[in-house]
Amino acid sequence: MSSKISKKVYAAILATGLMSFSGVLVETAMNVAFPTLMREFGLATNTVQWMTSIYLLVISVVVPLSAVLKSSFKTKQLFICANLLFFLGLLLDALAPNFPLLLLGRATQGLGTGIALPLMFNIILEQVPAEKIGFMMGFGNLITGVAPALGPTFGGLIINHLGWRYVFCFLMPLIVLSFCLGLYGIQQKSPIVKITPDLLSIALIAILFGGVIYGFSKLSSGNLQLTLLPILIGLAALGLLLIRSKKVAQPILHFEILKNKSFSLQLFGFLLIQLCSLGNAFLLPNYVQMVNGGTATLAGLATMPAGIAGALMSVVGGRLYDEKGARLPIMTGVSLIVIELLAFACLSGHMSNWLICLVYIIYMTGMGMTIGVVMTNALASLKPELSAQGNAFLNTIQQFAGAIGTSLTSAIVAFSQSQAGSKGPGPTALGTQHAFIFLAILAVILWLIFYREIGTEGGAK
């Protein structure tokens, strides 16, 4: 294979990346709109949260199917389907007269994102020369990594000046651009082998993620029955899915790859990184608004520089991986993650917006440097024919972490608030500190995992 990356490959990665970017941007932008939606449709907080939950739930069910879809359909067919579904979801939400139709639009967007997200990484793994995979994985993460940084600010500005419906309208041209780039650039490189998906396995995946996401969403309610019962049902579905995967000829998820110790450890590390990232993304904007008395737009502006730094560092991490191996970018990045979380665990009783902005840059620099390299290095530990399955596991874990990360940290804050009998600045700051102590413990575990796996080696290539 030539070491040169063609214009069509760049266009294909950008096309699929723009869809993932749009999915994350609308998710983070609409979080700012929750109070507006609650007033307009007469909703409670736990109801409006389904704007995010339904989206993540649909993605979590679709992403595990990515290896089967990739094998059974042409890449361009999948992309066109994903793009049209996402555009339809945007149109539904822009015109929705009521909340149920708004949820239907979000679910339709989830279908599109769930198909498109693994496509980008599969294209990189198949069509990029081995010596440049790290760089292009970083480039792919750069496209999607900018979205969380821009989302809250973009959402705040649009909602305050034009109204929440325009969040969806402004994304439509991006999806049209993505469609045109995909038609030009996406090529078929792998043979088509039709696989009939096992419907029972799909149902079990839906029950697994539906139960776990619903259970974790109820953590802050303090109702143990509402929390534990759905999670237990989800775990029971996971057990049945494991049994089912051994009985069918073509399982949707090949759990045998988890016997690969290196892949499994890095998959768990990937989960911890995502949990810490989602925890930060909830705690810091919440702190700016509830403790420091800032607006939603100010909260977005305070976290935006860090998000941009993280997106840019994803390319740096990828290039370091190509030139030096996994050890340098991963251990440097994870060390920065630990430093940030320990700092916030100590300082979060009293933090100015400037302090939040500056310290958060440390975290996002580390996360950006690490996240794409972990994905690349984990997949490098598998046989090439298993890379699509490995990609399915990584993207599934990413969505799972997204669904539970906010719930865990918000539950810790809510517990401190309930103990104090107030949601004022003091109890919120205390709860935030407790949440950061929890995340710091996870970060230390993360550091130990990667130090044991690659800390004394050059890293798999």
From TrEMBL:
Specify the superkingdom. Bacteria
Question: Where in the numbering of this chain does the Major facilitator superfamily (MFS) profile domain appear?
Answer: 8-458
Cross-referenced SUPFAM superfamilies: MFS general substrate transporter
Keyword Transferase set for record: no
Keywords (A to Z) from UniProt: Cell membrane, Membrane, Transmembrane, Transmembrane helix, Transport
Which GO molecular function annotation, any one, does this entry have? transmembrane transporter activity
- Identify the GO cellular component terms for this protein: plasma membrane
The Swiss-Prot or TrEMBL record describes its family as follows: Belongs to the major facilitator superfamily. EmrB family.
Q: What organism does this protein naturally occur in?
A: Lactobacillus porci
Any one Pfam family here would be: MFS_1
Give the stretches traversing the membrane. Answer: 9-30, 50-69, 78-97, 103-125, 137-159, 165-186, 198-217, 223-243, 263-284, 296-316, 328-352, 358-380, 392-415, 435-451
Q: Where does this polypeptide localize?
A: Cell membrane
Q: How does it sit in the membrane?
A: Multi-pass membrane protein
- Protein's UniProt name: Multidrug efflux MFS transporter
